[in-house]
Known about the structure:
single chain, mainly alpha, 12 helices
Amino acid sequence: MSGYGTTAADDPPLQTAVWRLRSRGCWVDAAALLEPHAKHDAEAALHRAALLIERCLYTEQGWTDAEDALRTAEALARDDEARGAAACERGQLGYASTLLGVRDRADEARAALGRAAALLAPGAPGRPLLDFRRGLIAQNLAHSAQSARAAFRRAHAGATAHGQTLLLSCTWRHLASLALREGELAEARHGFAESLRIREELGYLVGTAPALASLAETEPEPEATRLRAEAARLYRLLDGVPTWLASQLSPPAAAV
């Protein structure tokens, strides 16, 4: 569905509208479009919760709204796939809270992702996202590059197989960040460039500034300065979202 990061011409109008709002960082407006359906439809409830959790990660605001939406999604889940997807979002909320220093919920995040792994079949569409989020915890909370790389590679392969294009941009980005830390400049440049290309093609504006800033880390001058200037322009256009990017427009930038 377009709300999850595709732009197929035959997408339902609601999903297209949700994606357009999400891609511009208008998560509250996007969630409002889903709210009437989220009261009784498990998929809509989960989608709404995911939007509000993403808002937390990008803006450091809206934690109570995200928690309430997630509880609704959890209550509506009726099968293992829905329960696993809800547990994956529970893990993401705990990860975001811990990463941004709001409250340490690392144990909750790991437990939730463990539940998701038990509920989602190996070939389930939700499995690549689960692998990616396990990689985030390994990379940014456990600081285990080896575990993170293995999880991101599984997520990358799964996203490719399932046609999950936006997730693919994220796996490219994080594999590139690991390569950069190990001094593999050419590999890092390629990964960041692929991530940026996908985000620009999808029109994922809110994720484009971080992608530009990351690519700038691998480019010589004057290209690096040009990329950072473009990232700063988009950052101002989106009223300072993502919040964590401000301090990283000159230093390295790779958090989402």
